[in-house]
Amino acid sequence: MFSTEKRSILPVGDISQTISDDKADIAVLEEPEHLTWYHHGRRWKSKFPKVIGVVHTNYLEYVKREKNGYISAFILKHINSWVTDIYCHKVIRLSAATQDVPRSVICNVHGVNPKFIEIGKLKHQELCQREQAFFKGAYYIGKMVWSKGYTELLHLLHKHQMELSVLKMELYGSGEDADEVKASAERLSLDIRVYPGRDHGDSIFHDYKVFINPSTTDVVCTTTAEALAMGKIVICANHPSNDFFKRFPNCHMYSTEKEFVTLTMKALGEEPIPLSDDLRHELSWEAATERFVRVADIAPTMPVGQQPPASPHFMRISPDNLQKNMEEASAFFHNTISGIETARCVFGAIPNTLQPDEQQCKELGWKLQG
């Protein structure tokens, strides 16, 4: 169910039940935080021999921008660490822009749709044949909410309007702040055109040469990866969320406003460097899958329910056993709290989502629980 307050889809009931025990092998929890915040049911680690969490969202950065944000971010930081610890064997963070959580590694395990790579290959051929591959200037595409970099972009363009007088910026996006973004651009007398959002693979974007993305709330920006795959020059902030793109010669990162102006003007006057086959592969889902298998440390594990032989030193309390007992006690506490409707609502759960309703049970083929 979609939570308007959190702008996230939260589970209803125990979604682990949708997988039968005989098929429970490796679970990949995309967004493990909000899949486990209000989880009430069988523990993920008990059902699956291996549970890998993939952290996509910089929740703390978003929360900090709200009222009493720093207090909320402090609380959320500890909750995120708690739930990912008790429910995941390992956590993959797409970039260092996300918070550090127990047993986590940093690796971008996402790729782009093959169509963007094919667009880039066509542009590569045009450049190699000394044809003009790009006929348009600069653009940005992203959900039109202030936190997606629009605040920073309008500030930079307004403050350096004289130096960037030749820049004609075009924005594409839909969202709750679209009208405000457009009104602000007009009020500041910026040479900006604002259009509704559309698919980034649309032919309207093929001929843009420069993609400008000042956002620092993303974890790994999908549209930046897509723009690079299409052979464009990218101007973005020198920020942990963009570390993966540093290896790409068409990605230019700025640390200061002066650098932003310099890099933007330079990009408008030069042609992109054609991507090598190796770098093009790095953006693909094939490469992303290879990275995932490597960092997830996926290997044959002992089936659920099969226990290792008992040690003759069964009375010895090892640090590992103590840690395991503490983790199980912590998981038991979370399970208890998450089963109380009042407590769930206090911590922000959608009311009446402890169990699926009649319609959801019908769709899943489950019996409605009393």
From TrEMBL:
Keywords: Chloroplast, Glycosyltransferase, Membrane, Plastid, Plastid outer membrane, Signal, Transferase. Residues 139-241 form the Glycosyl transferase family domain. It holds the Pfam family Glycos_transf_1. GO terms for molecular function: digalactosyldiacylglycerol synthase activity. CDD domains: Glycosyltransferase_GTB-type (cd01635). Coiled coil: none annotated. It comes from the Eukaryota. It catalyses: a 1,2-diacyl-3-O-(beta-D-galactosyl)-sn-glycerol + UDP-alpha-D-galactose = a 1,2-diacyl-3-O-[alpha-D-galactosyl-(1->6)-beta-D-galactosyl]-sn-glycerol + UDP + H(+). Its EC number is 2.4.1.241. It is found in: Plastid, Chloroplast outer membrane. GO terms for cellular component: chloroplast outer membrane. Belongs to the glycosyltransferase group 1 family. Glycosyltransferase 4 subfamily. This is Digalactosyldiacylglycerol synthase 2, chloroplastic. It comes from Sorghum bicolor.
